[in-house]
Amino acid sequence: MHATVGDRVHIKGRNVGMQEHVGEILEVRGLEGEPPYLVRYSDGHESLVYPGPDCIIEQRGPAD
Predict the structure, then answer these.
(1) How far apart are CA 53 and CA 64, in angstroms?
(2) What is the DSSP string of 1-54?
């Protein structure tokens, strides 16, 4: 999994009824775009993320 600053992380809920968490990657701490990623969520919470199989990286578009 590779990401750059500004990409969005979507973490699916593991159980029925759990909401998806979406955040923006603020910092890539691994080599060549690899995890871990420092992510800020819409509520302002920041977290260091090691993505698992329930995670999708949405690449930032050229106009973003």
Answers:
(1) 26
(2) ----TT-EEEE--SSTTPPPEEEEEEEE-SGGGPSPEEEEETTS-EEEE---TT
Domain ranges of the chain: 8-58
Task: To the nearest 10°, report the CA torsion of 48, 50, 55, 60.
Answer: 60
Which pair of tokens denotes residue 10? 């979507």
- In contact, 3 and 25? CB cutoff 8 Å: yes
Q: What does the pLDDT look like over 21-64, one tens digit per residue?
A: 899 999 999 999 999 999 999 899 999 999 988 899 999 877 65
d(CA 29, CA 36): 5
